[in-house]
Amino acid sequence: MLANKLVYLRTAVKSSVLRTVPCVVSKNSYLRFSTVNSRVWNEAANIAKSPEFANVQDAQASVATTAAKIPTPLSSSPLNTLETKENDISQENGNENDVSQEKDYEVTTFQGLRDNKLIDPLISKALSRTGFVDMTPVQSKTLKPILENENYDIIARAKTGTGKTLAFLIPIFESLCKTRRESQYMVKSVIVAPTRDLALQIEEEIKKVFYKNNYGLEKFPSMSLIGGVKMYDQIKKMRKIRPNIVVCTPGRLLDMLSDERLANEFFRFVDFKIFDEADRLLEIGFKEDMEQISDLLNTLSAKPENHIRSLLFSATFSKEVRKLSQSIMNKPDFKFIDTVDKNEPEVQEKIDQKLVVVDSTEKLILESLKYLTDKVANKETGKYIVFVPVTTFTSVFANLFKNILYDNHLLNNANINVLHGKLQQERRTKTVQRFKKSDDRMVNFLFCTDVGARGMDYPNINEVIQISLPSETANYIHRIGRTARGSSEKGESIAFVTKPEQKFFDVLAREKKVFVDNKIEDFEPFEDKYNIAESVKSEMVKNVDAWNETFYSLLGFHRSSVSEFKTNMTALAQDCCISFDKLTGGTKLHVSPSSINRIFGNQLLRQIVEYIDYDGPLPRDEPSRSRYGGNNSRNRFNRFDNDGQKKSRDYNNDTRSNSGFSNRSGFSDRGNSSNRNNYSSRNNYSDRNNYSDRNSRTEGRPRTEGRPRSFEGRPRSFEGNERSYGNKDTRGSRDSD
Question: Which of 198, 307, 485, 683 is deepest in the core (most CB within 10 A)?
Fold first, then answer.
């Protein structure tokens, strides 16, 4: 009797001699064999059934001894990684051979997927030729559920740089192999990426892994649909190659789907839709586009309802991502796979993070330039990505660095590339390809904005250098995630920030559990070996207009992030203006009057007006008007005197008197209570229709048509609300919008 030592023998006969033999000897234990010949198999079966072995270890030792006596070595046969776990033994009616099998096993290699018949031999061959053997944790946790069960959608959360791309490309090609004879000339899989560069990178990955290493997979063509390229040329190419896979950005895909003729020509037989970097798609503002894309694909589909399968991959799983998943998933059920531990930081542990805190924006620029110049001078060859906050800063800062290297005869040792969203698509593509293929014997720099932070895979990045802050905490994670990707051993990251910007890292630690331990607050300036301070000043004086626009954009960037990072906008603005003055040799930052409401506002303008070149009207400092009490009073309880009696209203000293209010609202008489109770001009509103003060403010523009300005619709300030036109010109805000 086998009882608790039942052996489940499952053999996969590959020839008359070779067999695959996983042998389970006792409950919750298994003995795995790797493609042994029939003599080893027979001996293993006899040993496992023998009552003299009380445990698995003894059986393993005996089988290993027997296998060593076989002339053909085990290593000469291909490995099989199938693992079969034993379940409870059913012994009903005395039948000792009834076995209940559990098929939930873990696969950690691509060959294991092939052995379990989860992927086609064409795909397995391409992966093995590429050199992929073991799967990353993300791939091992997502591929098997996606491939085994097609009845539910998948939402996967994974860190950046962990192999997410292959996790959705392999299921796509497996589906294409299964349906190779169905709708051969139609789009069957749609991949949506947040940026053009990421879409092109995914297309390049398809060619490199699948087409290049197995020509049999070229019968499933792919192409990219992105902005910046003529749509006519893309349609012409689609009709020529008839792609089965399209990698696209939301805008261009929506253009295609919105054209009924093109949509019916290409997109009626879609099986898969994949949203890569879904959290980034939401941040950019593509939520409605993604929902519309999903609805259009479902409407166009010639197959049954809920046929299209959805895969959503994201580095974070916020409330917004959850809401999006509910609106774009097609299957009745979906499975969420989280490959990140809740208590684990979202960045790779292999990245060494450093933080350098300087006193001002002036020092930020000078010290970062010294750091970069030393890299070139010391010939620290490799690839470096330099992230800067805004587009204008990217170009002028890269040109400044290039001129410094030229003046010091160091330019021959470095390659400088610039990438930002305002470049033409053809130039962006060439820049990315040039940087990826750059010579490792040179010092290679890529100056870019956050357009190069998400999902982009640049091989062998030595260090990520950040100048100032990213636009959000998630982008910090994606920025430093460009290094230590995949199997890289380690990576480095350094960030240069000013003192007011330090609060960003408190938010980063609280929200993302990312801690920067190596923080240098009492920073001693780098040695200026190449007279960089003078070079910067001379270059900025030559290009003062470009740098004025750059600092102005930098102020706008800080303004947009104040509420999220809780930074001090006044300190940031004063620092930028003073630093510009010093770097340009006494030239003040020019600010146009039309930008006051958009960037500064009256309150901030008062605090920095002495540091800028501003030729517009200054905000008026008027006393605040309160509903209760006299001048500048904000206490609602001062309506009563010392005896507890209600005070009588003194309209001569009240802030609502004629002198303080008539010019703003156009009411000719408000001075006494009788006129307020019996307001004679309430019906005709002759003064309010003229409204000389309004016309002067809006430069003679006609009054906007709308509802009649009845008594109930008069300005809030008439009711005593503190949001009067003296404190905040709401009409001006609306005009600027």
Answer: 198
Indicate whether 632 belongs to any domain.
no
Which residues does 427 contact at the CB level (< 8 Å), separation at least 6? none
pLDDT for 484: 83
Give me the amino acid identity at 40.
V
Same domain, 243 and 115: yes
Domain identity same for 370 and 431: yes
Q: Is 582 exposed, middle or buried (0-12, 13-18, 19+ CB in 10 A)?
A: middle
Answer whether 438's CB lies under 8 Å from 383's CB.
yes
Structure tokens at 241: 């190659």
Q: Is the dihedral of CA 550, 555, 558, 560 positive or negative?
A: negative
Q: Please give the structure tokens belonging to residue 511.
A: 């929200």
Element (H, E) at 239: helix 231-241
Instruction: Tell me the H-state helices in 379-480.
Output: 391-407, 425-436, 473-480
Distance CA 597, CA 505 (A): 29
615, two tokens = 């030729």
Q: Give me the torsion for CA of 445, 451, 457, 461, rounded to 10°.
A: 30
Residue 353 DSSP SS3: strand
Burial call 170-184: b when 16+ CB within 10 Å, e when fewer: bbbbbbbbeeeeebe
Residue 669 lies in a domain: yes
Claim to verify: residue 151 and residue 246 sit in the same structural domain: yes
State whether 168 and 128 are in the same domain. Answer: yes
Note the Cα 411 to chain centre separation in Å.
33
Domain that holds residue 609: 535-614
Same domain, 206 and 279: yes
Model confidence pLDDT, tens digit, residues 545-600: 999 999 999 999 998 888 888 889 999 999 999 999 999 989 999 988 877 767 77
10 pLDDT exceeds 50? no
Mind listing the pLDDT tens digit for each residue in 676-700?
A: 444 443 444 344 444 333 333 334 4
Residue 45 burial (10 A CB sphere; 0-12, 13-18, 19+):
middle
- Specify if 507 maps to a domain: yes
Confidence of residue 180 (pLDDT cuts 50, 70, 90): very high
For residues 465 and 549, membership in a common domain is answered with: no
pLDDT tens readout for residues 42-56: 454 455 545 544 454
Q: Is residue 330 part of a domain?
A: yes
Residue 236 phi/psi, 5° resolution?
A: -60, -40
Instruction: Provide the sign of the torsion angle of the four alpha carbons 519, 523, 528, 533, taken in this order.
Output: positive
Same structural domain, 552 and 494: no
What is the token pair recorded at 168?
């959705």
Boundary (domain end) residue, out of 314, 338, 362: 338
Using an 8 Å Cβ cutoff, are 313 and 278 in contact? yes
Higher per-residue pLDDT: 69 or 409: 409
- Is there a single domain that holds both residue 288 and residue 146? yes
What contacts 324, CB < 8 A, 6 or more positions away?
278, 282, 287, 290, 291, 312
In total, how many domains does the chain have? Answer: 5
**Amino acid in position 84:** T
- Give the H or E element holding residue 101: strand 99-102
Check: CB of residue 727 under 8 Å from CB of residue 622: yes
Query: Which whole-number Å values give the CA distances from 477 to 24, 170, 350, 351, 505, in the listed order?
Result: 45, 26, 13, 11, 12
Q: What predicted TM-score, i.e. pTM, was given to this entire model?
A: 0.64
From 581, 614, 647, the end of a domain falls on 614
